[in-house]
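Margin note: ligand = nicotinamide-adenine-dinucleotide.
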Amino acid sequence: MSKNILILPGDGIGPEIVEQAVKVLEAVRQKFSLDITTDRALVGGAAYDAEGDPLPESTLEKARQADAILFGSIGGPKWDAIERDKRPERGLLRLRSSLGLFANLRPAILFPQLADASSLKPEVVSGLDILIVRELTGGIYFGEPRGIREENGERVGFNTDVYAESEIRRIARVAFELAQVRGKRLCSIDKANVLEVTELWREIVTEMASDYPDVDVSHMYVDNAAMQLVRAPKQFDVMVTGNLFGDILSDEAAMLTGSIGMLPSASLDENRKGLYEPCHGSAPDIAGQDIANPLATIMSLAMLMRYSLNRVDVADAIELAVEKVLESGLRTADILTEGCEKVGTDAMGDAVVRMLS
Ligand code: NAD
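Resulting structure:
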């Protein structure tokens, strides 16, 4: 049956990096005779400029109909001063929550060819392969009440960190199942010594462990996890955590690999429909200069093939092509090291396509 992929390039470097992933998609469509159709729509600042809304109804409708979404990035200084509800980031948050994309998968993999690009010693990070599973539609980013109010003659800001048992169970289930097909180790991150909401989180993960006897489960406080990620990151296989802690820890893990330009992500719903995007933002400082690294977006396409289209073979082929490109010594500016050849965004996309054939 034909699968439909919605392409949402977004703002800043979004359109240039997505274009490279589209080239790769075209190449694998031919190589593997995939029955895939694509569609495009506006999102973020580009959608606000065109239609006054960062997530127009027409875009949301196409997203609902699609089997998977390939997303670039949104935002930029041009839209920083507009009203909060119309900002590009709101469009992405609304898209995630409207589609029920509650599970955010962020792998941090260090290709051996890039061990020198990390700020940590090569022996600490070489061969690193972590998967962070972050809850994406609950917790303090969405909890009510929230706001800024007057109290005793001054302004008070407040948010609510809240997780229902069912929300904890469904994200933990995703993490347990992924641990089963990886290294069979799951570390749940919380702050159960201080926050009741994560006390419940720990209780439920502990309870669920008996359903997954093949997975070795541990628990760690978030402050220790932040420390362990830079001290000895290879101790982790799959990490599962809530929205706020996951946001911070996954960026930290990203930097272990040397460049944020190398990291893909997936956000999945209950049926594995997903939105796939690089972990980085729209990088307005380098937009339009043909210097952005497109590999995170290309590897997001690989994740799309693996998780939403069930084509592990295609995902493996894309990841292998990326590795071969790195092996051949080609680098975009953000991952350039001595002795390698610097190439632009477009040339990097072409190189991956060449390695596929
Ligand atoms: P950023 O990730 O866009 O950029 C941080 C730094 O990393 C910059 O120096 C940038 O040049 C560099 N960088 C990012 N991606 C790169 C790539 N592919 N290749 C080479 N270098 C790359 O983060 P920021 O500067 O904090 O945010 C810029 C804008 O992006 C803001 O408007 C922010 O709201 C938005 N943002 C969007 C998303 C998203 O679309 N999911 C995520 C984070 C930030």
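The chain has two domains: 1-102+264-357, 129-256.
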